[in-house]
Amino acid sequence: MRKLTEKKIVLASHNAGKLREISELLAPFGIEVVSAGELGLEEPEETESTFVGNARIKAHFAAKSANLPALSDDSGISVDALDGEPGVYTADWAETPNGRDFPMAMKKVWDKLEAKSAPLPRTAAFCCTLCLAWPDGHDEVFEGRVDGSLTWPMRGDRGFGFDPIFVPNGKEETFGEMDPSEKNAMSHRADAFAKFRAVLET
Ligand SMILES: O=c1nc[nH]c2c1ncn2[C@H]1C[C@H](O)[C@@H](COP(=O)(O)OP(=O)(O)OP(=O)(O)O)O1
Ligand SMILES: [Mg+2]
To answer: Magnesium: present as a keyword of the record (predicted)?
Structure first.
């Protein structure tokens, strides 16, 4: 595994919630981070059908554009009774002509479960793939997940995306209700980050 020796990286994401969480996870390590948005980088099209594929697209695009190592995050929620949907397409399910509408997307997921009379608990997993890419084309990939179940109606406004309907196993609160530091200690992103830490340690 190639180690990260550079002290500055690009966060190859345009999602404010992810940027906040990843910056907090990186904070103890003394690495300067700059976001793709701050550098004025475009958003590449996510044309792959896997988290790994799209994470690679985003990280390599940013690393080459900024000439710095770049860390991307491709993530989503996979619902068991919907054969893993929306999965890689979680953000797409929220797209409208006027931008993203996650309450609408969450309702669509719940309505599909109701239409199927899916039994309780309605289990699901958040998945996260982190990709660290260098301008020379090398990359390292780290995958994480957190298992839980979906609840309705939505509860909490502290997170982002699908957080208001996801209750991780062993907890009562949704990710949307939890203290952000509690989510960031047990999430799919934290799980992937625990593996990513290996590139930071000498
Ligand atoms: O912790 C999470 N809590 C709630 N929802 C989440 C989380 N993690 C991913 N999600 C959902 C919403 C997000 O929009 C989509 C990922 O889509 P994804 O393409 O990877 O990210 P994105 O387009 O929002 O930002 P970007 O590609 O610039 O990193 O899955
Ligand atoms: Mg995206």
So the answer is: yes
